Sequence to fold (564 residues):
Amino acid sequence: MNPLYVFLALGLWFILGVVIAYFARKRLGEGLPDFFLANRKLGGFISGMTYSATTYSAFMMVGLVGLTYASGVGALGFEMTYLMYTIILLLIFAPRFWVAGKKFGYITPPELLAGRYQSKWVGIIASVICLVMLIPYASVQLMGIGYLLSGLTPSSFSNMYLIGILLGASFSTIASLVAGMKSVSWTDAFQALTMLLASIALLLFVFYHFFGSPVGFVSTVSAETPELLKLNWDLKMFIGLSLPWAFFAVTNPQVSQRMFVSDSPVSLKRMIIYFSIFGFIYTVITTLLGLSIANIGGLSISAPDQAIAALLSNVPVVLGLVVFVSIFAAATSTLGSIILTLSSIGSRDLIKNLDRDIPEDKELLYGKLLIVCIVIVCVIFANLKLELIAVLSSMASGGLLVLAPTIIGTFFWKRSTAEGALTSMGMGGVLTASLYITGWYPFGWWPSVWGLIVTVAIYVGISYLTEPPEYNEEFFEKIEEGLEKNGFKSSTGSISLFSSEEEG
Amino acid sequence: MKEKYIGVLAVVLAVINFGVPYLVLQDVQRFTGNYLFWTSLAMIVILFGIWNVKKWGDEG
Fold:
């Protein structure tokens, strides 16, 4: 593809994004909740779109398309498992996070854990795990942009990889710095719509240009590559990959922090509905694209991750550019959200814990400085192209899974203690990381499976051996009170299908 | 308690989500096999979610 077109498209995109970010700056207050949570005043549509754009990264159009192209329907099952469990977790946890944020003023998920367990160390350990796991994951987003840009432009143009990294990093930094969560969420909404519309346009073009119609596509796949419709994934791999993603909604702070930002229960409800619909459509489209590519002759594909780039070089230039920009958008929206969340965690849960008397304006300044520092670290990591980054990145979701028992217990187990939380996160984290790094999969089961089993056992065991803080009762009462007051426990009984007793 | 039922449902969903594709549909090489199964199951969960949240905020 002509680099001039690519840079023109990116330039136009960049300008639009920056304008949106600056518009978001209007009426921005000066406090920490203003910057990191848009003062908890996001409406349903923006909440839903920022949730979608944050959770769905470039992995969808690059990784998932390639995975479906290479291994078929198992990829759909893996991604739908993530979607279904995210919806279920949001039904249970979104009201609780939202009430806890409103009642206690929590800004970050680790701050919530520290408050509930009455231990700053619980917050610190959770924060360190988030930073260690998410910086490589954020770097991989930049690497994705770099590879895509260098893959789409002629090889005679050097440094395209580095230019891609710098462009992605600049866009995410601007989106995060201009107005914090407000500019990130507004640009996320713009990016989410671009991702969805571009993928729909591409799928329609593929159906009608290469297969004649959607029916032609179905007949071709059924006749030419029926093996892709058969489940080829090994069960242990399927569970090992799906398990961390099933808990993603509560273990990944960049998405769980979004349960704090809606302005009302109605907006929270809309966030879940918009995300569910977005996720379903986007997942179906990406997997259909993967199956399509496997049935289009003449594409030169050296590795599954190259599948989408190969397709883009065979579609009209304008469509190719729009889809390229949408993949750029998917990467930068995920990156911007991670950067902002990590900077809030760094300033709130690490720096603030070291110096309790730090004034709020200084804390905010540190937060903004951290945004720049985290971006620089990500750029360095991405440019080094270390193999370790890929390992750490794939470890990210499995590693963050060790937070799951502590987070679930926060709201559902009064007997749980800070000691149980600390030991389970610490030991579970070390065990999971060791298994990933050494590549040892005991009895063929993935590190995430072992990590979760061990973490649950330690969390429960140590909690029973130690005394829970008296504060637990008070915390549970306040959350229940907040749920009642805000209409999350409707007297009409939203699951009366199962029993008439569930109202309480 | 509402969450208890959603929790039970999550476990039942896990059994169906892994059980049906691997025990019943594994060798089916058509769109009406696992592709239709997972998309249908996801749609059911989405509808369940929408139905569950529809009263949120009504009594706020």
Notes: Chain A has one domain: 3-385. Chain A touches chain B through 55 residues (CB under 8 Å).
